[in-house]
Amino acid sequence: MSTIRKQSLFSSAIVYFGFLLGFVNTYLFTREGGLTKEQYGLTMTFLSVASIFFTLASFGTLSYITKFFPYYNAHLPRRQNDQFTWALLFPLLGFVVVAIIGAVFKEPVVNKVFNNAPELPKYYYWIYPFAFGYTIYAVLEGFSWFHGKSVLSNFFKEVLFRLFTMLLIVLTTLGVIRSFDRFIHIYSLLYLLIGLLLLLVLWRMDVVHFTFRVSKVSRRLKSKILALTTFTWSSTIIFNLVSVVDKLIIAAVLPDGMAMAGIYSLGEILASLIQAPQRAIVSAAVSHLSEGWRAKDLGRIGRIYQRSSINQLVFSVAMFCLIWLNFRDALLTFHIQKDFNYAFLVFFFLGLTRVLDMGTGLSSQIIATSTSWRFEFTSGLILFTLALPLNYLLTRKVGIYGPAVSGLVAFTVFNAVRYIFLWRRYGMQPFTINTLYTLLLAAACYLLAYFAGRDHTGFWWLVLRTTIFSVTFATGVLALKLSPDIMPVWETIKKRLGLGSKE
């Protein structure tokens, strides 16, 4: 667990620094006098469509990497290892197919469906280079996790991408980039840039090799590979559509759709802060889970399950409370465009969904790397069946809040199904008494900070509420020893500060 803890802590620090940059970018996008709601919504929609493109084009490549990398690595010399070749080649071929289909259906589908959001049809083809870079980067990132570069891949994705975006916003604001058209043209190339940088790093490590000769491992495992990738591809398509289709439904259904998508995106981005540690923990833990299943070490997998649950819950519930405490005051204090106040309840429902998902631990990764990986498709189908129609119906009925409410309902059922499956099949479950203590502690600290700063606004009141909650919650976490992974870190900090007990 120490390796996972070390990598996930480093990655978490990078991810949160990246989110700090994302906050700055969001402010630059949404402040009075910044870019319009429609322009902000368009850049966020680029990410959603690129994610759909990659999911359709990938043929389940990431599951192929995470499940079978240990077998290729254990039985083949590096230069005869053909996994990288197939893992990159098939998504690129798939992207070509998806791009052609997307071009064919632009006129009869995209132009007609998104007539409430004319910005999307206008810049539609600039999504192609953005999605192409996204596809390359996703594959390279999967390999970087298995070569000890999860921290670096997180840095490129969470920090470098946002730094480049920030530079584009600043240059556009200063008039150096003279039009939004030019902004989008450059923005569409950013994932290609960081993808090439990550490829260069892996190439210099001598872990990237192209060989078109089918290895003995590929021949022996081809039926299992095909079965796995087919099922996980299907489940990933379902899960991804549920995760990103909300903005597209808003843009298509609501009047002034792209502006509404921009407002929704603010709540979504703030909610994603809650889930930031999950990315780091997943990237650090997935290789250990894969190896644990190969070695049939259920005890090790169970420990990762429980520790990931409590670690993620501590982070997520704290972040939810901090944002909820300061949401309206922050919009007033930093002069965000008034229409973004509608994102308040969007964040509330999306935030609860993220806390729920974080608190159930790495259930998805545990199932995906196990011999029961087919259940990912089954649970994904349940999610899809609930979420998509509910998303559309609630968007028509309650407007911008519809997708957030439908997501909370659907993901509650989805996570309950996976929890029951792992409990009954393998005797694993992520919760302990510390789960309850964490929730009660967060509620008490929230109420204390809320009543201390109620009915007051301004920068220093933001600081006061944040300080009260952070200090009391952190003190409670340490005093109650809620996480076995936080305590060693705290002891190290005390020693370096000279606060440790002297013998």
SS-derived structural category: mainly alpha
Radius of gyration: 23 Å
Mean pLDDT: 87
SSE ordering: HHHHHHHHHHHHHHHHHHHHH
Question: How much helicity do the residues have?
Answer: over 70%
Rough shape?
globular
Number of domains: 2
The portion of residues forming beta strands comes to under 5%
Number of distinct beta strands:
0
pLDDT < 50 runs, ≥5 residues: none
Count of helical segments?
Answer: 21
Distance between the termini: 28 Å
Largest sheet: none
Spell out the blueprint of helices and strands.
Layout: H1 2-30, H2 37-57, H3 61-75, H4 83-104, H5 106-113, H6 119-122, H7 127-146, H8 150-173, H9 180-187, H10 190-204, H11 216-253, H12 257-274, H13 276-294, H14 298-333, H15 343-359, H16 363-368, H17 374-398, H18 402-426, H19 433-453, H20 459-480, H21 486-496
Keywords:
503 residues, mainly alpha
Task: Give a summary of the structure in a few sentences.
With 503 residues, the protein is mostly helical. It has helices at residues 2-30, 37-57, 61-75, 83-104, 106-113, 119-122, 127-146, 150-173, 180-187, 190-204, 216-253, 257-274, 276-294, 298-333, 343-359, 363-368, 374-398, 402-426, 433-453, 459-480, 486-496.
Describe the structure.
This protein has 503 residues and is mostly helical. It folds into 2 domains: 2-431, no CATH class; 433-503, no CATH class. The chain contains 21 helices and no strands. The protein has helices spanning 2-30, 37-57, 61-75, 83-104, 106-113, 119-122, 127-146, 150-173, 180-187, 190-204, 216-253, 257-274, 276-294, 298-333, 343-359, 363-368, 374-398, 402-426, 433-453, 459-480, 486-496. Helix 3 (61-75) runs parallel beside helix 7 (127-146). The relative contact order is 0.12.
